[in-house]
Each structure stands twice: as C-alpha cells, then as structure tokens.
Amino acid sequence: MVGPAERERIIAAIRAAERHTRAEFVTVIARRSARYGFVVLLWAATIAFLVAAGLYASQVMTAFVPLFQAQLAAFAGVLVLSSWRPMLRLMVPRRLLERAAARLAREQFHALGLHETADRGGVLLFVSEVERYVEIIADRGINQKVSAGTWERIVAEFTAKVRAGRAGDGFVAAVEASGALMAQHFPRRADDRNELPDVLIEL
To answer: Which residues contact 162 (CB under 8 A, 6 or more apart)?
Structure first.
C-alpha cells in the first residue's frame, strides 16, 4: 500500500488534473482482489497427500499417527506459505488473478458512482497489489471521444511502476497523463463542479 506522503501526492495530482478537465478521477488500490481460498485449499490438500504418500512409499513412516501428523504439518505449511504474496501468485493461475481483479475494478467503478457523473466522464485508476493488476476504466462519455487503445501506453507505464514496487509514482504519473489526455478531449467548462471526492481509496 502507499504511505501518507504518497497518498497526498496522488490527491494533489487528481486535483491538478481536474482543474483542466470535466472528467472525474478516482483512484483505488486493493491489497488483493479475492481470497482464492479454494485454490489454496486444493494446493494444501494435494501437497499433504503427496507428502504422506511419499513418506509411506519410501518406508520413512508407515504408522498411521506419524503419517497423519506429517499430513497436517504439510497442510498447515502450505496455508502459511500462501500468505506470502509471491507464493500466492505461483499457486493461483494468472487468468484467475486477472479475472478477479478485473471484476473488483468494475464493482468499484459502479459502487463509487463513476457511472453517474453528469457528462458520463468518470475515470477509475485501479491497482490490485497481489495480482499486480492495473486498469484504467473510462465511462461512456469519454470512450465516445477516446478509443480504448489510447490508454494502453499509460497503463503500460503504470503497470511497470507498480511491479517495481512504486505504486505511488505509478498513480501520479497515470493521473497526470490521463489529465493531459482529458484536457484535450474533455476540457473543463465554466460551470463544471467537482462531483466526486478527490481521494485515494484503499481496500
């Protein structure tokens, strides 16, 4: 997650960007997008079974109680290891990680009211840390003016910074780049008002 100083930098970047566009920016960073309990339990059960089978086949252990204890230890060990992010990423298929993060991003887009702005000009900048997933979702009013491919460069740079452990820098750079893009295609009007709070939401 980001620290207090980075949070203030992100909020300042949002306010600066919104001075030149009627688009509304919201930033969200999630520790993880799902628990992946079924996948972790499946790994734990499989490893526990293989440990017991290996010990029995090699005649290292043949008595029921020691084998059962070894199974429990293996099962618990996998559960503990799953709390380590790199290990969890190895356990869970990449497609499942991306699907969970994409689902949470869209849930947040609607839960935060980004689809309800006056000009349909909401922009969500979303990061999920465990999944190393980055997405920018723009509402219909913006997508009528800016093609989806336009966001690819911003997302690529954003993703690179997040994977390097610099989520705060990634957010700031993405907000600044998105703000410049929106100022060109979605300029601020004299009667524009701030419809959504300028905050970084941490889940």
So the answer is: 127, 129, 132, 134, 170
Q: 3-state SS string over 97-130? A: HHHHHHHHHHHHHHHCCCCCCCCCCEEEEEEECC
DSSP string covering 66-108: HHHHHHHHHHHHHHHHTTSHHHHHHHS-HHHHHHHHHHHHHHH
Q: Please choose, from the candidates 52, 83, 80, 76, the residue with its C-alpha nearest in 3D space to the C-alpha of residue 65.
A: 52
Average pLDDT of the chain, as a whole number:
87
Structural domain count of the chain: 2
Residue 120 has pLDDT above 70, yes or no: yes
**Residue type (1 letter), 105:** A
Position 148 scores a pLDDT of 66
Residues 125 and 178 in one domain: yes
**Shared-domain flag, residues 121 and 145:** yes
Q: Which domain holds residue 116?
A: 4-34+93-202
pTM given for the model: 0.85
| Cβ atoms < 10 Å from Cβ of 103 | 12
